[in-house]
Amino acid sequence: MPNNVFTHFPFLEGKNLPLAYVGFMTFDLIMSSVTMVLAVEAGHRLNRKQVAIWLFLTIIGGFIFVGSQCWEWYHFITGEETHQVYRDYWMNGKHIIDPHFQGANLIVNAYTQLPTFGDFFFCITGFHGFHVFSGVIINIIMLIMVLNGVMDKRGHYEMIEKAGLYWHFVDLVWVFVFTFFYLL
Amino acid sequence: MNFFEEYPGYPNYEKAAIHDEAHGKVVRKKLWMVFWIMLTITIVELIIGSQFNFSEVNKIYTFIFLTVVKAFFIVWVFMHLGDEKRAMKYAIIAPYTLFIFYLAFMCITEGVYSKVIRDALVTVVLHQ
Q1: Residue B51 is part of which domain span?
Q2: pLDDT in tens, B21-55
Q3: What is the nearest CA distance from B78 to chain A, expressed in angstroms?
C-alpha cells in the first residue's frame, strides 16, 4: 500500500514513479554509510586529510536524507502529487464523506482505511529522521575535532570509529524501516 | 606519564586497528565490494516492489530475507563485527538474527489486530 502512496519524485511531478524517491533515499544512506566506513579506514592509516574529506561527504549525505524526508512528509501531509484512494473516514462513530478530504494526519488519512498507517509512519520515520539529524550533528563535531588536530594529538582515530557505529546503526534501522514501511 | 607508558605490557586496543597503506588498499576493496552487493540488493528490492506481481506471501518473505542479508553486511563489515573473535561474533549475531525473524513473523501474523478491531467496530456501528 505505501508503494502507491510514494509515487512522486522532485522536479518530475505528475509522473507515476512508485518507490523511485525512497529508492534514492536508501541509496543516499547506503552511500553515506560507505563514506563513513572509508573515513574510519582512513583514520586507521592516520590520514587526517582523507578522514576530513570522507566525513564531510557523510555529512552531506545525511543532510540530503533529512531534506528528502522533509519533502516526503510535506507531500504525505498535504496529499499533493500522491495516489489517494479514500474520500471518507470514520470519526467518533460517524461515517464522514468529504470530497475535499486529502492527505494525512495522526487520526485519519486518505491513503488507506487503516487509521494507524499514518500514526506508524509519522512515529517511525520521525524518530529515524531525528536520529539521522543527531548523527549528522555528531559527525560535524567529529569533523571539527579532526580539523583541529585533536585526533592527531591522541595518536589514534578511535572516536571516528565510535561515531561511525552510531551512523551505521541509523543506516541499519533504515534498512528495516524501508522494508516494513515502503515495500511490504 | 600516560597509562600505557606506566604499564608497558598492557594491550592498547585503540591503536591496535592502525594499519599501513598496503593493508588499507585490501580493506577498501572489500568495502567497495560490499557497497556494490548492497546496491544490487536494493535495486532488486525496488524492482520486485514496483514491477512484479508476486503473490503477497512470497513478496513479504523475499523482502524480509533480502533485508536481513543487507543488515548482516552492515553489521559484519561496516560495524567491524567480522573482525572480532569467533565466539564473540556469533554470540552477538545469532540471537539478534533469530529475534529479527521472530519479530518480523509476529508483526506479519499479529499485525492485523488493529484492522480486525476496526472492522468489528464498523460492523457494530452499522448495525445500530
Answers
A1: 21-126
A2: 888 899 999 999 999 999 999 998 888 877 766 66
A3: 6
B15 touches chain A (CB under 8 A): yes
Split into its structural domains, chain B has a count of 1
CA atoms within 13 A on the CB side of A120: 14
To the question of domain A2-183 being in CATH 3.90.930.12, the answer is: no
Enter the DSSP assignment of B80.
-
Task: Give the global pTM.
Answer: 0.84
Distance from CA of B125 to the nearest CA of A (A): 7
Q: Alpha helices of chain B — where are they, by DSSP H?
A: 3-6, 13-16, 21-50, 56-73, 86-110, 113-126
Domain boundaries, given as residue ranges, for chain A: 2-183
The share of chain B scoring above pLDDT 90, in percent, equals 28
Specify which residues A89 forms β-bridges with: A96
A5, pLDDT greater than 60: yes
Question: In this complex, which of B21, B45, B114 lies closest to A116 when CB atoms are compared?
Answer: B114
Reported for B114-123, long-range contacts at CB under 8 A and 24+ positions apart, including other chains, are B114/A114, B114/A116, B115/A114, B118/A113, B118/A114, B118/A115, B121/A90, B122/A90
- CB B63 to CB A115 under 8 A? no
Residue B45 in domain: yes
Per-residue pLDDT, averaged over B89-115, amounts to 83
Q: How close does chain B come to A77, measured CA to CA in Å?
A: 22
Task: Identify whether B82 is part of a domain.
Answer: yes
Cβ atoms < 10 Å from Cβ of A142: 27
pLDDT value of residue A94: 75
Q: How far apart are CA B112 and CA B40, in angstroms?
A: 32
Q: What is the pLDDT of residue A13?
A: 62
Q: What was the ipTM of the complex prediction? A: 0.80
